[in-house]
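Dear all,

This email documents one entry for the complex benchmark we are building for the journal club exercise. For each entry we list the sequence lines for every component of the assembly. Then comes the predicted three-dimensional structure of the complex as a token string, followed by one or two observations. Please use this as the template for your own entries, and keep the labels exactly as they appear.
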Amino acid sequence: MPNKEVSLPSIDIPDRAKKILERIERVAVHASDLDGIASAAILLLLSPSLKIDFLSVTEAKKAPAIYDLVVDLPKIGNAINIDHHKTNYEYLIQHDLLSQKDLVDPESPSAAALLAKYFGIDGNNHVKKIIEIANLADMGKFTAEIYLIDKIIKCNSRNPDSLLKIALAVAKYGDKFLEDPWLREEISRLEPVLKKCGSLSNFVVKEVIKKRGFRALILHVESGVPRICIGDLMHNFIEEGGRIVVLINTMREKDPYCPSLTESMGPQAARISIRVKGIEFDARKFLERFGGGGHKTAAGAKLSMDKLPIFLLEAFEELSRVCGQVLYLNLNKNTLCEVP
Ligand SMILES: [Mn+2]
């Protein structure tokens, strides 16, 4: 564990929080976004020797009950749960699993904010900066710096050693995380991919909005798209005037830029993500029908391939109900041959 090699700023921890920390050994946080990493950073500031596992939501749902604390993820076993996902909140209420020791608040912009509040360190200036970047990231308000660290997190989301390095950089530098040498190295390594993300996003906006005037899009990504560009495809479509995008990712090929993402792919599945802006559509409720969840304007699900036809049918129905016309666009090596 490289934890001890990095000197982290020291913060005042209230006695009440110290008592809780004494009973916490093993922690799980969300692996694939800045809120999860910022939460890990706050935990490292609280107790640098904590054993932190970085899990996806799917992994958390199947995880053994070995954790004392679970952050930005569904509750695992009897662990303390700190989270802000409404899907999780409603599940816990329904099954009477929410206890006094949990802090699950769907109104909170980030789990990191709840975590700092839980341990009474939300007044600390360094911690405030970490909360601020987690809030911005989870509300989709990406600054240039947050965009870059989010890409590095996505690229390394299956690589625990790298995720810990990123969390340590955030713990040490706060919102100045780009001062970390390892993060800077990763950014220059990923520069060509990020360029490609830009031209792919422009291609989608041009084909769907500029040429054809559609605001509702079902975007099926079958091949030829670097994994870390997928967020940009949705984000840019929404920023350029799109109202709703349902992204279906069924790619099977290896990712040349972020190989750990495609090292141990399970059975063929369809990963669904939805982004919504400026229309009345509850992405979370829609994807809960398919075992997914998240937030009203940003939600996700993982489907087995046999459920894809019925999913598509319902997506077309729902989107045309709220938006009128819907466009289906399939991105694959053939359709992308003209994109620079
Ligand atoms: Mn979050």
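Observations: The mean pLDDT is 94. The longest helix spans residues 181-210.
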